[in-house]
Write a structure and sequence with these properties.
By secondary structure, the chain is α+β, with helices and mostly antiparallel strands. The protein folds into three domains: 3-105, Alpha Horseshoe (Serine Threonine Protein Phosphatase 5, Tetratricopeptide repeat); 122-192, no CATH class; 198-284, Alpha-Beta Plaits (2-Layer Sandwich), CATH 3.30.70. The protein is built from nine helices and ten strands. Helix 1 runs antiparallel to helix 2, helix 4 (59-71) runs antiparallel to helix 5 (80-91) and helix 5 (80-91) packs antiparallel against helix 6 (95-105). The chain is elongated and about 85 Å long. 36% of the residues are buried. The mean pLDDT is 92.
């Protein structure tokens, strides 16, 4: 190919990019950068080619091209080439590359050979973002790109308590709790499923403390119970903006409670909860597993 052909290929690649035709943009950029892997502008081309495949959720290709982009990026400067490689390597379970990518970005991660298991704090995650989902839950980050769901998602969300999801690194909204701000990250995919189904029961609780006692009882057994009063319905535009949340949302009275527990255990646990204060506590309704 001549220089003219290269220029036309580059132009066509970014025309496809502007049209959000990620498959065509990625193919053209890769073709160009394979011809000129160490051109002065090649770090940008490698990065954009990998990013196009990230948008396509073609993680194997994003991993392959992302390695080339990161190899041409400056370490310790928070270069996004390392971050995108870290995500792709995590999904591909290439833990050595993931660790190196996070360190190249400038983060500290624990040593080891397998999965990265650390505590990077809590963050809100928007579940099933690619499938049009919009439910935001709290999760504990195990690494820069993976988090374990701490809430009991609604049955409609398609997700479960305790599941591990991979999330994006670009914030898409904000939640404020007690004056502290947390960025919302969109889920990219389900990394590890939970075997605890989500069920819903109707309860009568005399006081908010009774609802807290129910949550504590399930937690003691490794399960979870969460009142539906904690679910705040907002439009997608507001969800992607700044929303203030109140951590203490328990209320007394009749209400729905979402449970994450084996169905065969629910009657036993609910009966134990009622027995501690039968004058204030009751439960009825079908269990939806």
């Amino acid at each position: 190919m001549s220089r003219k052909d290269d220029r036309e290929l580059l132009k066509a690649a970014y025309e496809a990019w502007d049209a959000e035709d990620w498959a065509l943009a990625g193919e053209r950029l890769e073709r160009l950068v394979r011809r000129h892997p160490d051109h002065r502008r090649s770090p940008v081309w490698w990065y954009d080619a990998a990013l196009a495949h990230k948008f396509l959720r073609n993680w194997a290709k994003a991993h392959e091209l992302g390695r080339e982009a990161a190899a041409r990026a400056e370490r310790g400067t928070q270069d996004p080439a390392f971050w995108n490689l870290g995500i792709a390597a995590t999904i591909m379970e290439d833990w050595a590359t993931a660790r190196d990518a996070w360190r190249g970005y400038g983060l500290t991660v624990p040593d080891g050979d397998g999965e990265i298991e650390a505590d990077f704090g809590v963050t809100p995650i928007r579940l099933n973002a690619d499938a049009g989902g919009g439910e935001v839950v709290w999760a504990r980050r195990l690494c820069p790109a993976r988090a374990r769901v701490l809430n009991v998602p609604t049955p409609e969300s398609g997700r479960r308590y305790g599941e591990v999801v991979v999330h994006d690194g670009a914030p898409n909204g904000e939640r404020t709790v007690g004056g502290e701000r947390f960025s919302v990250f969109d889920e990219l995919l389900l990394f590890r499923a939970s075997d605890l189904p989500t069920s819903t029961v109707e309860v009568g609780a005399g006081t908010p403390e009774d609802v807290r006692a129910l949550a504590s009882l399930f937690d003691e057994h490794g399960y979870a119970a969460e009142p539906a009063s904690g679910v705040q319905l907002i439009c997608s535009c507001c969800s992607e903006g700044s929303v203030e949340q109140h951590p203490d949302h328990q209320i007394g009275g009749g209400q729905r409670v979402h449970l994450a527990a084996p169905v065969v255990k629910i009657s036993e646990l609910m009966a134990a909860w009622c027995a501690d204060a039968p004058e204030r506590r009751s439960w009825t309704g079908a269990i939806q597993g």
